[in-house]
Amino acid sequence: MRRLRACLGAAAAVTLAAAGTTALVAGSASGATNALDNRWYAAAPYLMPTDNDPPNAAAIMDATGLKAFQLAFVLAPNGGGCSPTWGGTSPVSSDTAVQSVINTIRSKGGDVSISIGGYGGTKLGQTCADPAATAAAYQQVITKYGLHAIDFDLEEPEYENTAAIHNEIGAAKILQQNNPGLYVSVTTAGTADGTGWFGKQMLLEAKSQGFTPNNFSIMPFDGGFNGAASQTSALAAFNGVLRSTFGWDEATAYAHEGFSGMNGRSDTGEYFSQADFQTVLDFATGHHMDRFTFWSLNRDRQCTPADNGGRTSGTCSSVAQNAWDFAKFSVKFAGATPPNSTPTPTPTPTPPNPGNSCKAAWSSSAVYVAGDEASYNHHNWKAKWWTQNETPNGSDWGPWQDEGSC
């Protein structure tokens, strides 16, 4: 997924002496602050701090109220080896560029998580000898930046390598044990049935090692998805995968489940609007899911004809929007209220025709899935996700979307 990232430019070379590899301590020389509430790390959108025309993090914080950022991506060196780099080219040990971004965010009361892996490039799980060596490499990242959160983005092509996934999951477990309180997310590909074969094998690897992160997140895009209904359906299916794999009940599975979307036009030409994000946000909060994030803040701004031309871009969304529209959904998920802003330039939907005929009457015993329609109280309603015995009403947080009178 996130194929766009495979052709991104390299991060600039930087110069700072290496830090030690002791366990995480708040207030370390790296400038770490006290940890934010985990809900902020769960809501942190992805930001490439050195590529794809990185936006000003401080400006985003001021405009939206966002406090946490998911910085991407830490990889193995392009020439091989078991030491962490930014984008395969810039050693973490000598970094000053990303550290400067982190310092700016923390000076305004925010914090960061760092994502390792992603689509393309060589991952440390592929080049390090075993889980312990992989964990030692990632510990350098945690210690240097004083991290309270980390994301394992396990997708193509690494997740097709069983030895690499064994190293990554084993490393995640070691880091979780050695850094008390560390927030750990695991992100992988999304499919209509939740996740694909390799994603399911990754979950089985986690089960075999006795590893449970804060969440397993799927990316329901680039796989033939069509708007929010297909995404919430995939999230419901993934809940079933988590239940069958770990023996959890539905609520426990949702409490360990996350969503990672792509704002605007996806790599494969799918479109996800602000309305789609709102629907998925409603689903995530309504089911008490643990995480809601997206790729990426670099894209959370409207394209100009010169920088887009009808294609997917790494620096804009290819949909009508105000700058940072999508970041505000992350703020809402974290439980905060974004500052007031001008209305989004999204075309206003045509109101339903009051003369529409009524659909079949809603039944408290019937099961409805995303897209199903029913009538109730002289209005037609469309289900946002799986529901049963939940009376249609106008609540933004409920499972039903009002389609107008009938």
Provide structural commentary.
α7 packs parallel to α8 and α8 packs parallel to α10. 30% of the residues lie in helices and 18% in strands. The protein contains eleven helices and 17 strands. Strands 1, 2, 3, 4, 5, 6, 7, 8, 9 and 12 form a ten-stranded mixed β-sheet that branches. It has a three-stranded antiparallel β-sheet with strand order 14-15-17, with no helix packed on it. Strands 10-11 form a two-stranded antiparallel sheet. With 406 residues, the protein is of the alpha/beta class. The two termini are 42 Å apart.
Topology:
Layout: H1 38-43, E1 46-47, H2 57-64, E2 68-75, E3 85-86, E4 90-91, H3 97-107, E5 111-117, H4 124-127, H5 131-145, E6 149-153, H6 162-178, E7 183-189, H7 197-209, E8 215-219, H8 227-246, H9 250-255, E9 257-262, E10 264-265, E11 271-272, H10 274-286, E12 291-295, H11 327-334, E13 367-368, E14 373-376, E15 379-383, E16 387-388, E17 400-405
Parallel strand pairs: 1-2, 2-5, 5-6, 6-7, 7-8, 8-9, 9-12
Antiparallel strand pairs: 2-3, 3-4, 10-11, 13-16, 14-15, 15-17
Instruction: From the alpha carbons, calculate the radius of gyration and give it in angstroms.
Output: 21 Å
**Shape by Cα distribution:** globular
Report the uncertain regions: 5-30, 346-355
Q: Tell me, rounded to a whole number, the average pLDDT.
A: 88
Structural class comes to alpha/beta
Number of strands: 17
* SSE run: HEHEEEHEHHEHEHEHHEEEHEHEEEEE
- What oligomeric state do the depicted chains represent? single chain
